[in-house]
Amino acid sequence: MSIEKVKAYFQQFNREQEVREMPDSCATVELAAKALNVIPARIAKTMAFQKEEGAILIVTAGDSRIDNSKFKKLFGIKAKMLSAEEVIAIVGHAPGGVCPFAVNDDKVTVYTDISLQRFDTVFPSAGSLNSLIELTCDELFNFSHSKEWIDVCKDWQT
Question: 80-102 pLDDT, tens per residue?
């Protein structure tokens, strides 16, 4: 089970007890924001895209969308999301619970979008449809082994 992998991953930081399991689904930005009583933008959604071998994970603010031209300029490929089956096989988490922690590292490269940097803390999924963890942006970046901060999103600027 993915949440168990994520909790085990956070043991090395003594943070496994901070993984929250909510009574209801948090599988979408809207559901997670409602469950936590926060604005949707503070939900750190993780999106999985195809690359030649494996996947690119981009963690973005809940109110942002991928800007296809920025994505193509940065990565040199068209932004094509993985299918549900590919996400499970390549990333190691099921859709609705995809997170940048405890992933299949040999096939996955994680990036963090600057749309998150306007918040002190954000809430990424923790490997299941009803789990989350609150992290600072620096913690999210470091714990996810993000390669770099990138700017590939639109519709989030105020």
Answer: 999 999 999 999 999 989 999 99
